[in-house]
Amino acid sequence: MPANLTTQYKDAELRFRQATDHDAKREALREMLALLPKHKGTEKLHADLKKRLAKLEEEAGHAARGGHRADPGHVRREGAGQWILVGPPNAGKSSLLAALTHAHPEIGEYPFTTRAPLPGMAAVEDVQVQLVDTPPVAAGHTEPYLPNLVQGADGVIVVLDPTADDVAQAFAAVLEVLSRGHVWPRGRAPPQGASPLLVARPVLVVATRRDLDDGGTFAALARDAAGAELPFFAVSATRGDGLDALRPELFRALGRIRVYTKEPGKKPDLGKPFVLPAGATVHDLAALVHHDVAAHLKFARIWGHARFEGQQVDRHHVLADRDVVELHA
Description:
- The protein is α/β, with parallel strands linked by helices.
- It folds into three domains: about 5-65, no CATH class; about 80-250, Rossmann fold (3-Layer(aba) Sandwich), CATH 3.40.50; about 255-329, Roll (Ubiquitin-like (UB roll)).
- Helix content is about 35%, strand content about 20%.
- The protein contains ten helices and 13 strands.
- It has helices at about 5-20, 20-35, 45-65, 95-100, 145-150, 165-180, 215-225, 245-250, 280-290, 290-295, and strands at about 80-85, 120-125, 125-135, 155-160, 185, 200, 205, 230-235, 255-260, 275, 300-305, 310-315, 325-329.
- Helix 1 packs antiparallel against helix 2 (about 20-35) and helix 2 packs antiparallel against helix 3.
């Protein structure tokens, strides 16, 4: 039996997916429960929503009794997008963060060196993306907030040590964390009977220690364990191998575009592009610049992917990556 979800329910579900703190998530879940049609076709979804709400309320209760705020793993977003690094102990997550950003994580040859999320900013050409190192995923020792951290991110980087004996098990454990966060790798078919709340996120697989795997044998085994449909990168954080191939993917996989603005008669500002989702229009850019510009926008001129340089377009024109836009209000 179809669920026949209403527009109001879908709006509440969107607010839940976009929420970045416990209070907003709980409010959206309560609204979803109130708006959910009550019939046999929605029984599983109703149970799933109640379970998720109970979990959030339990976490909030623990935080209140402990005298601190909920979301111990919440990391404020910065830059063009947020990637969460997830993987087993000693996979090289902290070394990868240090190699790609200016962060200085504690790095050790012993397990569980990382005890709390640590963000760093990675330069990708003319934009910055945020990478967040996390405590390791291990049987019986995974931080309870990690699924929520993954759920709120724009993408996930699965870091694996291909020389380890249990690469397949390690990847399966990470997938379990993603599943608990209602996240599934974009491009991979979701499991049968998956929750309606499941969201697709870009997932990159990074095999470390390439400097110990000159023949690529271990990396090939890790690729097989992760599956051919997921983007795969073999890197060495210490030697730098493979990082130049990985870095541009940190922006490209987010499905976003960079747009530059210019004033009439002046050169474009190429130092700080505006970042928008793919498919964004001239109106979306104008709204990002200022709501008054969007309200009074008459037309725009485009350099880049227009039919000719300086082409005049209306507010509904779809922008492309690296377009230069001159707004006329």
